[in-house]
Amino acid sequence: MKLYIFKLEPQLRRNIRDCRYTLEELQKIKGNLVRQFGQRQKGFRRGALLAAGIMVLLLGMTYTALGSSNVFWFTCAVTAAIVLLALLASWIACIGVVKHQFNCAVRKGYPEYQEMLCLHSFREK
Known about the structure:
mainly alpha
């Protein structure tokens, strides 16, 4: 199984660190990343809702089989923990790594503009 992790192109990261872009070019790059993050967040929300729905369905079937017992509540806790860990890993793979890479490159290459260029929130336009 191959896990896809969304990363910045190494050349792009290197160019940002080496100050090879103008401020306008960097703002365009940031705008493209913010747009991609918006699309990815939309897909992530759909996936999270789907995972939550499946979890509720499976736990509902477990409840009908076991009733309200200690085993059922333990199953609920373990299932919730596994789903949360899977969603966290998914968010890191689809958004978190690129955000970190871009922010680190901007801090090294353009420290005077880091407040303006760093990706603080994905709701930026």
